[in-house]
Write a structure and sequence with these properties.
Layout: H1 4-12, H2 16-26, H3 33-40, H4 49-59, H5 69-81
């Protein structure tokens, strides 16, 4: 699955490592490299809002451009059915 974030990075020709480095340079408490990889690859959907803000600020995008709302909605619906 290609996430919204992965598409943004690909379109702008930015690597995950480059995004990670920019976050580290700008913020005193950066995002973990492994966690960022999990977010980019859609394996981690439940992460702190501050992490989302850091990613969005570096990429100069709004949160809806990054958050996988359709996937989250499907997962939440499954949880409420049980």
């Amino acid at each position: 699955m290609e996430t919204k974030l992965k598409k943004i990075l690909k379109k702008r020709k930015i690597t995950q490592k480059s995004l990670y480095d920019k976050i580290c340079k700008r913020y005193e408490t950066p995002v973990g490299q492994y966690a960022l990889s999990e977010i980019v690859n859609g394996k981690k959907l439940n992460y702190h809002i501050i992490t989302l803000v850091k990613i969005c600020n570096i990429l100069k995008v709004k949160p809806h451009s990054v958050v996988e709302t359709d996937l989250l909605d499907r997962l939440l619906r499954k949880e409420t059915k049980n």
